């Protein structure tokens, strides 16, 4: 057995935007890495128009900034 295998009760997936491996905690979303990014409803809509899957916190922050620059905040 491969000793470097990571045991986790959550699924390890790739960020849809950058490909970074992230631990998806959809069943415990308040503990998920993405929950540190507080998005407004308009920011959530902007992101969801571009991507369907999970994104890492870094990408969410970058997309939030991109949206804010686009609307002039």
Describe this structure as you would to a colleague:
This is Cysteine-rich CWC family protein. It comes from Pedobacter ureilyticus. With 73 residues, this protein is of the alpha+beta class. It contains two helices and two strands; from the N terminus they run ββαα. The protein has a two-stranded antiparallel ribbon with strand order 1-2. A hairpin with a 6-residue loop joins β1 and β2. It starts with 10 loop residues before the first strand and ends with a helix. 11% of the residues are buried.
Number of helices: 2
Unreliable stretches covering 5 or more consecutive residues: 1-5
Evaluate the radius of gyration: 14 Å
Could you tell me how far the N terminus lies from the C terminus, measured between alpha carbons in angstroms? 52 Å
- Secondary structure: helix percent: 25-40%
Largest sheet: 2 strands, antiparallel
Mean pLDDT: 86
Backbone shape: elongated
Task: Give the strand content.
Answer: 5-15%
Number of strands: 2
H/E element sequence: EEHH
Which class best fits the helix and strand makeup? alpha+beta
Q: Output the strand order for the largest sheet.
A: 1-2
Notable characteristics:
Cys_rich_CWC; 34% helix; single chain; 2 helices; alpha+beta; Cysteine-rich CWC family protein; 2 strands; 73 residues; two-stranded antiparallel sheet
Task: Please give a quick description of this structure.
The chain is α+β, with helices and mostly antiparallel strands and 73 residues long.
């Amino acid at each position: 057995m491969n000793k470097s295998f990571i045991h986790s009760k959550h699924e390890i997936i790739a960020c849809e935007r950058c490909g970074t491996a992230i631990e998806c905690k959809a069943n415990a979303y308040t503990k998920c890495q993405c929950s540190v990014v507080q998005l407004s409803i308009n920011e959530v809509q902007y992101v969801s128009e571009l991507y369907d899957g999970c994104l890492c916190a870094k990408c969410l922050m970058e997309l939030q900034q991109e949206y804010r620059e686009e609307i002039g905040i």
